[in-house]
## 1
Amino acid sequence: MKKSYFYTLSLKPINVFFDIIADMIFQGVFMRFFLLFILFTLTLFGESTFITKQEYASSLYKNPRGIGCGHCHGENGEGKVIANYIHKKKKRSFIGPQINNVDFRRFYAALTRSKKGMPRYYLTQREIEALYFYLHQNDKKEEKHAH
């Protein structure tokens, strides 16, 4: 005895639903719809859910691996006195040097090698580029205002 479509629907609607979905996937209709939906969603909401290059660079500068660059090099890389002390009866200062005036080659070398007083953070190439961007993002703006 052959079952009718109505009989199948009335007894097992969930099976029919999955059969229809399986047919749609097989035919590619569902996959096309799904891809269009994902692309539409990313286009519509994509910019508001991801951080900008400036936000990423700023957060990295403020806290790359537990301690921010600004603690030693100043808020904008201008340099900063970290500590004053006396050594052999002479006043001395431990200073985080200015880093917003360093070219990328020197900046990269300083972050990838151990140096006295400078912790090694084991940053990726992308993170180093983001930090450099953070320190130099206003350079072109300042050049325009100077001319």
## 2
Amino acid sequence: MAVSREYIMVKKCIIQACDKPLYAKKICKNHYELNRIRGRTYKIRGTPLYQRPVKCPKIIEKCIIDQCNNPSRKLKMCNSHYQLKLSGRTHKKFERTPNGTSIEERLKNKSKYNPENACIEWISTMFNNGYGQITINRVKKSAHVASWEFHNKKSANGYFIMHKCDNKKCINPEHLMLGTNSLNQKDKILKNRQAKGTDFPSAKLNDDKVREIHKLLNSGMKQTEIAKIYNIDQSIISEIKSGKRWKHVEVSQCQ
């Protein structure tokens, strides 16, 4: 590289429009530090501007599912569709709805009419408790709740949306009604849908053991002795005898 006459005579920085004294490598201290930290990004007298090489933009592939514009992560699918793939669903069952689709269209496209019970059953993503799941404004809620709120044009506001048909998948607004927690519990007990007996994972007894306990009570054995046999508290034996616990077990068979 040819050195300018100005540099030889005055010994100034060779950077264009810089008159500061030299520091090292024919440039001033400020440009030397800039060169060390950022690389050569300045223009030398009589030479073109040196810049860092521009990196090629990374090509981002989109999800292979129709109407999904999210970037692909695994198996050429986005994270959402990949997780649904792991659950065993096929592509057609969980195709994403296009952005801007109304709630009415989503409820219609993700449900199917059942002529046997006149229920409109949800066929898309489900919660673990068996109720349909829908996302509205990035908030997950039950599909039957969203259906009731859409058709009644108001929010449930903490109230329960109860099923008249006892079908958790149903989103038919004619089969839904507004209720309270106490009303929901009474309806559950009336229809014998509450958890009982061996439905609880921590239950130490079963129907056969309860019948054996009734037989031992009828034979005259003390409650404390029976409690030691089954490794439970004596109060549980007392509640079984009075009918407060395990009352669904038929006592007539134990006589």
## 3
Amino acid sequence: MIKMLLFTAPLLAPILAYGQNPSADLSVQVTPPGSDPPNSITCAIGPNYTGSIPAGAQAAGFTTCAANYDFTQTGSFTDSLGTHTWSTLSSWFQCPDAGTFGAIIYNNQANPATQPCSDTSIVTDNNGDAGATGKQALQILWTLSDYNAGTQITQLNSVSGQGKPTPPGTTFPTGMYVEVVDRITAATYSGVQNGGAGWTPYFSDVFWGGDYGSVNCRTEFDFIERYYPNNVTGGNVIGSCGAPNPSAEPGATSGYSNTVYSNAGTRITVDTSGNMAVCRYLNNVQLSPKGCATATLTGGGSSGTITQRNNLLLWSGPNRPAGSTTCGGSCTPNVTNTELIQRITFWTCASWQTTACTGTVDSGTP
């Protein structure tokens, strides 16, 4: 993908590894009816989920919380990987990437230089922007120093960059519903609009289709991506496997702002014959018109897109080719690219660790 990207967030990338510890019990536990609703849903990765399961996820039967990267939670939590506190980065963030099990997120981009660990931090978002909430968030930077060092992008990953084709880390099935709550700073947005930075949050929001194994046909699912100069804010589906790509974009919705937190959702349903539907949501409401698209994958039921394992990618920067000073134009920064993420949550089926979570193809509402 040759674009100037303002910032990058989650996207789905295919991979063959199935999880940190295939023998671990990663089932989700829901508290009995009548108990305190906050924090009632236990997630395999991350703290408990607060609130109701999105209606679009429930409609597809995706009621298991595989991962809840809720960076607004300030206390410690224990999940299938151990005990963590977001503000203590060493408890969940492996930087530099040592290629060992146990981390929630790995700092593993190296094309040609790896971004410094200091580009990733937990902050209180009170920078004065109208969209700042005062809550805790994950901050991802791409800076002039990164540019001068030849760093292509700042990239965080749910799997290690070592040990391929089956690196340590957490992967997800194709069938799922993903929520991404994020924003970029006003300075980042205005800097790009004024012809400067040339980078965009490429929030290929939690997944990116790129399998490390021998999958015959793989697809990249971008949950939220922003790029300049087209000023596009939305999702994308990339690959030659015939996967559907809805044309509705969150950024085209009235009242949407890149600098204010919103919940961008993506639902992917697929059956064993290779029929697939991809639907997009904004603040738990399906986009309309053309918020869903359907197609039959190339190869039908034998398509690798069905069985590919997907890893979460958070990506910030211009996506310039390694060693290049251009990205189809100038990408010399005039501002630091700042992405702020409050939460990324994955809803899927109970057997998400070992299956593709296939089922009924759902292109309806909710």
